[in-house]
Amino acid sequence: MENKVNSAEVTSVEAKSQNLPVKTQETKKNNKEKLIYAALVGVIVTIMSIIDCFIAPCFFKGTSFMWIAFISWTLFSGQPKSERLKAIIGYIIGYFAANGMVWLSNNFEILTKLHSSVLPIGFLVIGFVFNVLIAGYGNYTNKFLNSIPAMFLGLSFTFSGVGVGFAPNNLNSLAVIIIYGMMGVLACFACDFCAKKFIKTQ
How much is the pTM? Predict the structure, then answer.
């Protein structure tokens, strides 16, 4: 009986000792793959930054619009491919929605004579209506056109003047939003490709 027990214990110890190097090798391999992936993400950012250096001065000298690409990248990095493809259309719809809000709110105040230096009543009313419409947009339109996150981002980018004070109706704003929004979406696809290529074990 003692020999059998001792033999089992030895086998168990040997099995454990044999497993340890394998796990260590797998951990090292995982760490190496993740390190390669992280380096490739850095390469993607560097390429985007180089592109920005050439494109941004065409719209406004001495600035960068990379923040738009980063927001787009962050928002859609975990989203399905279909959502990413809808994003650009959503940005465009958001841009025109923002312009519609500005135009209608100004005319609302003129027609109703409710202009106030304290509360922009026209903008509040039109803003409420537009946000209700956009929030429910996906229920009554083609599914290819209903990227609600992208539409709200398009609104936000337009109202921000893309960080350089462009007027909402400035077509440069639309061009910047489309170019850098697309850049962020392409970065999502590039990261997916790198992950599939280099991170094979989890």
Answer: 0.76
Long-range contacts of 61-68 (CB under 8 A, 24+ apart): 63/163, 63/164, 65/162, 65/163, 65/176, 65/179, 65/180, 66/180, 67/163, 68/157, 68/162, 68/176, 68/177, 68/180, 68/181, 68/184
pLDDT tens by residue, 137-169: 655 555 666 788 898 899 999 999 999 999 999
* DSSP assigned state of 146: -
Confidence grade of residue 76 (pLDDT, cut at 50, 70, 90): very high
Q: Is the Cβ–Cβ distance between 52 and 59 less than 8 Å? A: no
CA atoms within 13 A on the CB side of 21: 4
What angle do helix axes 171-198 and 148-159 make, rounded to 10 degrees? 130
Question: Do 172 and 59 form a contact (C-beta atoms < 8 A)?
Answer: yes
Maximum distance among all Cα pairs of the chain, rounded to whole angstroms: 101
Retrieve residue 181's tokens.
Answer: 């929004």
pLDDT digits (tens, 9 = 90+) for 172-198: 999 999 999 999 999 999 999 988 887
Contact of 198 with 37, CB cutoff 8 Å: yes
Tokens 């001792």 sit on residue: 6
CA–CA gap between residue 163 and residue 140 (Å, rounded): 33
